[in-house]
Amino acid sequence: MKTDNPHIAILGAGESGVGSAILAQKQGFELWVSDNGKIKPDYKAELDQYNIPWEEGGHTFEKILTAQTIVKSPGIPDTADIVQQALNKGIEVISEIEFAGRYSNAFMIGITGSNGKTTTTMWTYQTLKIAGLNVGLGGNVGQSFARQVAMKNYDYYVIELSSFQLDGMKKFKCNIAVLLNITPDHLDRYDNNFESYIAAKFRITQNQTENDYLILNADDQVINEHLHFNKGKAQKLEFSTLTRPTKGAWLDNDKIIFNSINSEFDMIYTKLALEGKHNATNGMAAGIAADILRISKDNIRESLMTFSGVEHRLEPFISVRGVEFINDSKATNINSTWYALESMRKPVIWIVGGIDKGNDYSELDELVRQKVKSIVCLGTDNQKIKSFFKGKVDHITEAFSMKDAVAMAFDMGKKGDCVLLSPACASFDLFDNYEDRGNQFKMSVRAL
Question: Its Gene Ontology molecular function terms (predicted)?
Fold first, then answer.
């Protein structure tokens, strides 16, 4: 099939970029894939398999800037020189989500938030699977959305959307949008302007009509303060652990109550598969989305009671001589780590650090004083963490490899303690990504 835009350039050759390339080829585009860094061998082999031309280690500007459309991987900032030159030439620059959405008529459930979006996305996906729906899982988790549009034929998609992916969306519409929370994160990508980051998150509501749904966290102060600027047309449902929304879900003593669109039902709060009030809100959001789709209350309850969680997110690992190790490598911002520390019931040796994204550690001050006995700083520059928490815990040390960090933490622990890897920072100073960081943590614990 030939298109109106004969030439597409794809920036970045990770999962998002390669998936976009496969879809572009299927749609008949002339295309060029360019990665400023090194492309992983598996992705090179896949591009070669499909006879898709590519380059690595730099961009050939003349090949890219002749494109009508550029599909940009989410990790590439708008400030990158090649992106700026493209925009100045009037070239359309979009995200993989926007590109793939142009070739799918499926029902779209989009989920965003500073924290909890992977858990909520996976939980919603599982609920739809249990109900027997033909559903794909994409965005920031699993295979790229574009790859699935190219190679599968799903009726529904549950898509985790980061602010970077939302930035590149133009016409993409969520039939159901979920906005979990907004706390300062990735401010280095938004000129340290929190308002710009908030606006990026609210882009999930753009293009929604009165036939669509917006599921919101009624307890989130930032969402409430900005909702009047982003009224939109979608029907709004809310979830809360503090209040009783008119339509949605809420916590009532020992029960979670659902009263959204199609049914009213409840379940015992303590039977929820994942502990903590933050997971109650994640489960409520997933349950509301499922109820909108007329999934039975029995299937919703089953999913909420059986979901096993997400790897690297408050993942109980193993105990070694009475010291429990918990892998929360996915906690790349302060708010995620706040939830992790809040849920701890044992004295904590806390492994923290990485690339600071403008963190305000004062938000953790009270919890650290209450729950943390020792801190192991893990990163190439630990000075900010050491300075802030000096005198607030029994001991602070630093490590420059995961193996050393785990060994130090274990030496500081005793039976009944837990070692919590919850970095509150990005991973790219010492690791490929948060998965690499979490896997190295587990490997180092096994080696004790």
Answer: ATP binding; UDP-N-acetylmuramoylalanine-D-glutamate ligase activity
